[in-house]
Amino acid sequence: MKRAQSVRIDLASDTLTKPTHGMREAIAAAEVGDDVYLEDPTVRALEDRVAELLGKEDALYVPSGSQGNLIGIRLHCGPGDELLAEADCHIIRYEQASYAQLLGIASQVVAGENGILHAEQLVGRIRPQEMHSPQTRLLCLENTHNFGGGRIQPYKTVETICNWAAAEGLKRHLDGARLFNAVVATGIPAHKWAQHFDTVSVCFSKGLGAPVGSALCGTREAMGRARWHRKAFGGGMRQAGVIAAGALYALDHHIERLAEDHAKAQVLADAIRQTDGLCLQGDQVDTNIVCFTVDTKHGTAVEFCSRLSEHGVRVLPVGPQLVRAVTHMDVSLAEAKETAALLQSPNGT
Ligand SMILES: *Cc1c(COP(=O)(O)O)cnc(C)c1O
Fold first, then answer.
1. Is 62 inside a domain boundary?
2. Structural domain for 270, as ranges
3. Among the three residues 236, 253, 270, which one is the final residue of a domain in this structure?
4. Residue 68 C-alpha to ligand 1 middle, in angstroms?
5. Which alpha helices (DSSP H) does the chain contain, by range?
6. Most buried of 53, 181, 191, 236 (most Cβ within 10 A)?
7. Residues near ligand 1 with C-beta < 6 Å?
8. Confidence band (pLDDT; 50, 70, 90) for 3?
């Protein structure tokens, strides 16, 4: 991804956030040890904190959300097994099919509506237990849904889908990279969302604003095995307290403020609704991701984004006519308003 020197307002992703002064102080002060020897007190404190927030017995700090998902899948499936997932979820779309590359696991995808699944769509998807079929073992959900435009899989549907999966004997994994966005937007606490899943991964390096890392959580027994798999995937880290301190700081200081990112996204959404030739994907913005299509009279998505970049604003083309803007803590409300004005008049006229 090429980053023009002149980008002033960068809405490409919420991964772009840089550690704040307070976070850097916490990082500088972190007590550390060798975490592969279980001797890093800051990593331990982070894992305890995440487990408590998500109502699980234990948690494991991992270098990335992709690795958290991969380990979660590894816990529940082996070669010849199959996972069920939404067609455009991160695990399917953005993780190189690592479950297939590295683990010999198959996938069956079901297309949701802007990423949102309904229980009826899953009925009948489980393979028969016979000679010709992979064995369906795992259901993966994503909340909020990244490619769906930050949409929240509604709590009731999570409950219904997971109850169905449990009754069918499937394990459940939640890719909760942006679960805290759903928590703040709905007021439903993280542990309530998490109770429907065997394993949950959450990212600290998205809207929470930490520099590195994700956590996977589940039972103590599962996290013991997860720690073992993490080492095989090259994820055993030494004085990781340095980065874990940023994640701990983020949990203390940056959860509630996600509401500000959601408000900034609404400013963009309103501008898009008012602009001829722009159309909000699904006509709805739930959290901090704003996906919209541009009519060909504005040119292609690439052309539209390149016009905005001339004004120092970066948004990303994610399809031929589809554009994505993500709000985060390093873009102010004033900058969101400036972007909104530009969206309504992308030629600066
Ligand atoms: C960002 C993200 C991940 C993890 O990405 P990494 O870059 O591997 O940390 C996983 N799931 C979703 C939905 C994401 O948006």
1. yes
2. 9-17+257-343
3. 253
4. 9
5. 21-29, 41-54, 65-76, 90-93, 98-103, 119-122, 155-167, 179-186, 190-194, 220-232, 241-253, 258-273, 301-309, 333-344
6. 181
7. 64-66, 90, 142, 146, 175, 177, 203, 205-206, 214
8. low
